[in-house]
Amino acid sequence: MGIWWQDLIERPADLGSATIFEARLLVALRIAVFAHKTGADPAAHVAARLGSVALSNQLSLVLEAMGQVWPEPFSVSRPCCARMSPDESMFVGMVRSAMRGNRAAFDRQTREMIAEDARTLIYNLMWQIGGMASTHAETDHRSGPIEG
């Protein structure tokens, strides 16, 4: 059992309190949601934002899984907005917990709204994003700064 305030740390309120990768992931999520609403294919834009087709595909799997089990419509801010919606803040907290391998924190954040089997699926998909991000960051470090 963790300390109650750790869950608050896991859920930032604006993009400035997120890591660079988390902020890119969140903006990519926003682009994907808005493109989906207009009937456009967001894949190229999301891949450009994340710098990786594989990360874009993995995010697509996460969003598909979340879309199936999220109890209400997922609220997103405009891509240029610095403030996170409550759902976006929860998304970043979930990603942060999964990337750290902290299943207990992930479950504390999602237990009341997502069933166990769905939590396991989403946790594993987000954990894989963490591994892909680490590999991608190492590649980016060797080849120079990330553009965009």
The string of secondary-structure elements, in order, is: HHHHHHH
What is the count of structural domains?
Answer: 1
Range of helix content:
55-70%
Q: Let me know the average pLDDT.
A: 85
Number of strands: 0
Number of helices: 7
State the distance separating the first and last CA atoms: 40 Å
Q: What general form does the structure show?
A: globular
Structural class: mainly alpha
Oligomeric description of these chains: single chain
Major sheet characteristics: none
Cα Rg: 15 Å
Q: Low-confidence parts, pLDDT < 50 over ≥5 residues?
A: 139-148
Task: Give a quick rundown of the structure.
By secondary structure, this protein is mostly helical.
Structure description:
The structure is a single chain. By secondary structure, the chain is an all-alpha fold. It has one domain. It is built from seven helices and no strands. The protein has helices at residues 6-9, 20-38, 43-50, 53-69, 86-99, 103-110, 116-143. Helix 4 packs antiparallel against helix 7, helix 5 (86-99) runs antiparallel to helix 6 (103-110) and helix 5 crosses helix 7. The protein is globular, with a radius of gyration of 15 Å. 32% of the residues are buried.
